[in-house]
Amino acid sequence: GRFPIVMEVGTKHQCKDTITDSITISPNPEAKFSAFATCFKDTTEFTNLSTISSGDIVSYTWNFDDGDTSYIQNPIHYYTYSEVFRVRLNLVSDSGCVGTYLDSVYKYPYFKADFSVKDTCLGFSSLFKNNSVISGGNFTDTTWYTSEIDTFKTFDLTKTFASAGNYTIQLIMEQDTFCLDTITKQINVHPLASADFSVTDLCFGDSTIFTDKSTISSGSYTTSWDFDNGKSGVGSPIKTSYTSQGTKNVKLTLLTDKGCNTSTTKPVVITNPKINSINKSNVCENINQTLSANVS
To answer: pTM of the full predicted structure?
Structure first.
């Protein structure tokens, strides 16, 4: 405030003089700010809470304790490393009065969520290997989300998808129950070819013909055959011959353009009928007779 002052001077001869004036006492600014601990990837926001009872604060000087400074009222600062920083705020009012406030702010250590993913074939499990890294503190939670609308809490994830298609996998890691980091990747689950074939010419001594009847929802595939006679082959249609009769277990294997394998095995009966004799009898003219044979 403004206060009056009176000064009186006198000599040894009792001569006197008096003067009246006033003096202004300006308040010091009360410096204060708030700032919260921040995760490594985040900036630190400083909220200026300083006040002054009269006049204005005209100068703000921030020392962030990492070699950087700022001169704005509410700065935002990015710390490039983890530490407890002692931050100082110096104020100057329009009257030249000063105020200072010192407080600490913590920057969490570096950590990063990451995982490996590899495309797979339908029916096979996929391993999502958690490759997250942390330079300080501890992992305190792990959460996986998939676009099949399910959630898992294991550190690594093994999952088998119900159908072919493209799926989104999201990993959220937590550090010291405070910081979070998220990463999202895609996985392709490739379809399998549905293996099937038909067979013609099953008589012993003939060339038996095998024709691929397989299907696939997308992509292409190649065929390979095991004829159960010591021979194999590729393509369709394809022929083979057998040196003996009986049941042959023929296997068709398919390999898609995405590297997915599937197969089917069918029994194929190769026959070699032999007529040993004809069942007959001598009859009179105009009499019908049914003939039969003894076959082995």
So the answer is: 0.76
